[in-house]
From TrEMBL:
Species of the source: Anopheles funestus (African malaria mosquito)
Pfam families: TIL
Gene3D superfamilies membership: Laminin (2.10.25.10)
Domain of life, source organism: Eukaryota
SUPFAM superfamilies: Serine protease inhibitors
Keywords: Signal
Protein name: TIL domain-containing protein
Domain (TIL) ranges: 33-84
Signal peptide feature range: 1-21
Length: 109
């Protein structure tokens, strides 16, 4: 009797798993990303590089779906992902932040 109950619970659990799996419709509802962006099911806007921002400071981990800049790109003030480089030193490193790099965006004329 116990064996049947365990098997029944396992089968029902698997069925629920398949029912809750993402359908193709849900996948097609994800937003279209802009150029130089990629969609992530679990991303963090706080960790995304931003133009002229020091690469230091506290960031609370969050997992949010959305469009994020691809590797080698940073978000500018207009919200567009543009190429960037990292300088080795911040303008004013401090003991509090321990800052060592700053994001410098590359702008094309």
């Amino acid at each position: 009797m116990l064996h049947r109950t365990v098997v029944l619970v396992a089968v029902l659990s698997l069925q629920l798993l398949f029912l809750n799996a993402q359908s193709p419709e849900a996948e097609s509802k994800r937003p279209l990303c802009m150029p130089n962006e990629v969609y992530a099911h679990c991303g963090n806007k706080c960790l995304e590089p931003k133009c002229d921002q020091t690469a230091c400071g506290a960031c609370i981990e969050k997992c949010n779906p959305g469009c994020y800049c691809t590797h080698g790109y940073a978000r500018n003030q207009e919200g567009t992902c543009v190429p960037y480089t990292r300088d080795l030193k911040c303008p004013k490193p401090t003991i509090i932040t321990g800052c060592t790099t700053i994001v410098r965006c590359i702008y094309f004329a």
